[in-house]
Amino acid sequence: APAALRARIEASLAHQRRSLWRRLASPLPLGALVACAAGALLVFASHGVDDALVVEAVRSHHRGLPLEVTAASVGEGSIPSWFSGKLDFHPAPPRFKGAGVHVLGARLSNLRELPAAYIRYELPKGQAGLFIVDDPRRRFEAGGREVHVGPQVLRLVNARGYNVAVWRENEIVYSLVSDLDEAALFELVRTAR
Question: Cα(119)–Cα(122) distance, rounded to whole angstroms?
Answer without folding.
Answer: 10
